[in-house]
Structures are given as C-alpha cells and as structure tokens.
C-alpha cells in the first residue's frame, strides 16, 4: 500500500475496506494453494473475507496505519486458514461416521 494514511475508527469502510478484502482474498488463495487441504471446498465455504477484516482490526489497535493494518491482515491469515481447515476436516470426519 505504501501510504501514510491512518485508520482512526471502525468499521473500515469505502475504498480502504475494498483494498483489505481484496488483499485478504488474494492471501487466502495463496495459503490454500500451499496448504492443499484435504477438504478444500469445505474450507473455502467457511472463508468470509469481510468478517475476517471486521474482526482482525480491533478498536484497541487504533489508530493504525493502513500499511501496518494490511500487514497484520496478511500475517494473521495463515493461522486463521489453518483453523478453517481443521474445522472442515472435523466436519468431513463427522459426516463419514
């Protein structure tokens, strides 16, 4: 992003929100490709970029630069996707029994 702009209030709206959602979706795709989850379609069904953005940046972080917020969205996505994958695996296992 390379911006000096700051997020001073929540929820993130407008163009900033669109940029974060697009970045989260791109990172999700990159992570899914690397992880190759056993239940990829189910994992994808759990993914909600808007909810992720709404919950990743919290009031306690404000004010926060757009660049740093974008960095955090990307960094914390890997464990989030791992949780989604685990939930998908658990659901798939339950449906097989």
Commentary on this structure:
The protein is mainly α. It has helices spanning 14-35, 40-46, 49-56, 66-75, 77-96; strands spanning 6-7, 64-65. A two-stranded antiparallel sheet has the order 1-2. Helix 1 (14-35) crosses helix 3 and helix 2 (40-46) packs across helix 5 (77-96). The protein is elongated. The termini are far apart.
Rounded radius of gyration (Å): 15 Å
Give the class from helix and strand content and strand pairing. Answer: mainly alpha
Q: Compute the number of helices.
A: 5
Oligomer: single chain
Q: What fraction of residues sit in β-strands?
A: under 5%
What are the secondary-structure elements, in order, as H or E? EHHHEHH
Note the overall shape: elongated
Properties at a glance:
single chain; mainly alpha; two-stranded antiparallel sheet; 5 helices; 69% helix; elongated
Explain the layout of strands and helices:
Elements: E1 6-7, H1 14-35, H2 40-46, H3 49-56, E2 64-65, H4 66-75, H5 77-96
Antiparallel strand pairs: 1-2
